[in-house]
Amino acid sequence: MTDITPVQLMKAVKNPVEINGMHNAHIKDAAALCCYFSWLEKNVSTKKITEVSGAQKLLEFRKMQSDFVGESFPTISSVGPHGAIIHYSPDETTDVQITTDQLYLCDSGGQYKDGTTDVTRTLHFGTPTEFEKECYTRVLKGHIKLATCIFPSKIKGNYLDSFAREYLWQVGLDYAHGTGHGIGSYLNVHEGPMGISWRPIQEDPGLEAGMFLSNEPGYYQDGQFGIRIEDIVEVVQARPLHNYNDLPKIKRLIIINMLTESEVDYLNKYHQQCRDIVGPLLDQQGQTVAKEWLYRETEPISK
Questions:
Q1: Which residues of the chain have pLDDT under 70?
Q2: Phi, psi of 210 (to 5 degrees)
Q3: What are the two backbone dihedrals, phi and then psi, of residue 249, each rounded to the nearest 5 degrees?
Q4: What gap in Å lies between CA 82 and CA 55, rounded to an integer?
Q5: Any idea where the domains of the chain sit in the sequence?
Q6: Which residues form the signal peptide (predicted)?
Q7: Separation between Cα atoms, residue 254 and residue 298, nearest integer Å
């Protein structure tokens, strides 16, 4: 009996139909999240929205998308200190209000008949501190570096982990979880045997074209806040990793002068892609407020 079977290895490399489905699922999921985050921004200062009720509202927006079946895991909807608890799950005993005074970390995903999603965004609906913005920007720089790195086929994910941590390590910061996990196609949201982690993964067969993994560096200040930025990325042949979330990064939390010209260029191209791909779907669904939020968050930046 073996721990890793041929079936697992075949599932890890998606076929063209699965790849197309994953892309479509993430476009729909991005539309749902645009609706949720724009709704939050509009209502958080005038209504009592909590971690639990926010997660329920997000589920309502996902249910509006075609071929949605259910959540791929319980939503991690976390405010302030709760965001520093990496696997926090809100319930009635811990539920707190989402406010304009603290960071809000939302890690969630959906199961669609054409694919599985897992995405994290960290937002602030007021004025973040300089330290919060510095941490967010360092996490973003590592996220971009991993998303754009080119590497030999079949290299183990463990060798790529340091790319995501480099800019945190420069100032003595780190995070205590892996950087990426495989993801299924309308299957497990965590699907092995490959992964990206500071720990060597014995079963990792090496990364190759057709695999999908999460890219999710973060930083957690105990008792204060948590930051994580997560997209699902596809390993492709002979060109940089492509991003399949099409959901804006949060400009309010970025210190632009900390970014290089190439990082600014990457972000602007990525945000244009968000407009081009998700904008028409929001138009089709009549989600005017969500589209306005999307376009504002994707305005080009410059140093």
A1: 1-2, 238-243
A2: 100, -10
A3: -80, 165
A4: 14
A5: 6-297
A6: none
A7: 13
Cα separation values, 156 from 121, 166, 188, Å: 27, 18, 21
Whole-Å CA distances, 236 to 25, 85, 96, 154, 277: 18, 33, 42, 12, 20
Query: What's at 272, amino acid-wise?
Result: Q
Which backbone phi and psi does 101 adopt, to 5 degrees?
A: -100, -10
Question: Residue 249 in contact with residue 273, Cβ under 8 Å?
Answer: no
| Size of the chain in residues | 303
pTM value is 0.94
Q: What distance in Å separates the CA atoms of residue 236 and residue 208, rounded to the nearest whole number?
A: 7
Contact 123, 103 (CB under 8 A): yes
Using the Cα atoms of residue 195, residue 196, residue 200 and residue 205 in order, give the sign of their dihedral: positive
Residue 211 identity: M
Return the CATH fold of 6-297.
Creatine Amidinohydrolase (3.90.230)
Beta carbons of 52 and 92 less than 8 angstroms apart: yes
Using the structure block, give the residue that is written with the tokens 């749902």: 32
Reading the block at residue 17, the tokens are 């139909």
Query: Can you give the chain as a three-state secondary structure string?
Result: CCCCCHHHHHHHCCCHHHHHHHHHHHHHHHHHHHHHHHHHHHHCCCCCCEHHHHHHHHHHHHHCCCCEEEECCCCEEEEHHHHHCCCCCCCCCCCCECCCCCCEEEEECEEECCEECCEEEEECCCCCCHHHHHHHHHHHHHHHHHHHCCCCCCCCHHHHHHHHHHHHHCCCCCCCCCCEEECCCCCCCCCCCCEECCCCCCCCCCCCCCCEEEECCEEEECCCEEEECEEEEECCCCCCCEECCCCCCCHHHCCHHHCCHHHHHHHHHHHHHHHHHHHHHHHHHCCHHHHHHHHHHCCCCCC
**Segment 76-101, tens digit of pLDDT:** 999 999 999 999 999 999 999 999 99
